[in-house]
From TrEMBL:
Family per record: Belongs to the SecB family.
HAMAP family: SecB
Subunit structure: Homotetramer, a dimer of dimers. One homotetramer interacts with 1 SecA dimer.
Segments for region (Disordered): 1-22, 159-180
Keyword annotations: Chaperone, Cytoplasm, Protein transport, Translocation, Transport
Organism of provenance: Halomonas litopenaei
Major localization listed first in the record, in broad terms: cytoplasm
Composition bias, Low complexity: 1-17
Protein name as catalogued: Protein-export protein SecB
Ranges annotated as biased composition (Polar residues): 167-180
């Protein structure tokens, strides 16, 4: 009988703990272009050459807390295309694709991971389409960006931050761990 009472009390306590934890909620509120730019500084001359592109691509992400449980995530894509032989700039396209995400019940490292990897994965197809359309409207062949693994980029960023933290700790007089 005492075991039964202990189990019931344990189940009630677990139920109360579940009620105290906020429910995990993730929803996309809005997708929008925050900033867009296209330059073709050497047109129309560049159209007279055979198109032999050399693509330079730069990606960056950032997130900002807008309100309780509401976050803006932005992917900045910069594509600079030059002629592979002459080095002449064909075009420069910059897009800031953004989204508003409602996220509750997720905190700490898990929230950081969601904002740094999961949300950019949701936004990237929209950024790809925007870059492709922009370049095409500039008179150039479509620029089909390859899919990006934001999970891997996030992991690389965390490794760099950890290495920088270790280097700063060592520089401040802490001893670096040694292998035995």
């Amino acid at each position: 009988m005492a075991d039964e009472n202990n189990q019931n009390a344990g189940a009630q306590a677990a139920g109360q703990q579940d009620q105290e934890k906020p429910q995990v909620q993730f929803s996309l509120q809005r997708i929008y272009v925050k900033d867009i730019s296209f330059e073709a500084p050497n047109s129309p001359g560049v159209f007279g050459q055979p198109f032999k592109p050399k693509v330079g691509l730069d990606l960056d992400t950032r997130s900002t807390k807008v309100a309780d449980g509401l976050f803006e995530v932005v992917i900045k894509v910069t594509a600079q295309v030059t002629h592979s032989e002459s080095g002449t700039t064909c075009f420069l396209a910059e897009i800031e694709q953004a989204g508003l995400f409602r996220i509750t019940g997720i905190e700490g490292d898990q929230l950081d991971h969601t904002l740094g990897a999961f949300c950019p994965n949701v936004l990237f197809p929209y950024a790809r389409e925007c870059v492709d359309s922009l370049v095409n409207r500039g008179g150039f062949p479509p620029l089909m960006l390859a899919p990006v693994n934001f999970e891997a980029l996030y992991a690389q960023k965390k490794r760099r931050e950890a290495e920088q933290g270790d280097a700063q700790g060592t520089a401040q007089g802490e001893q670096a761990p040694t292998a035995h």
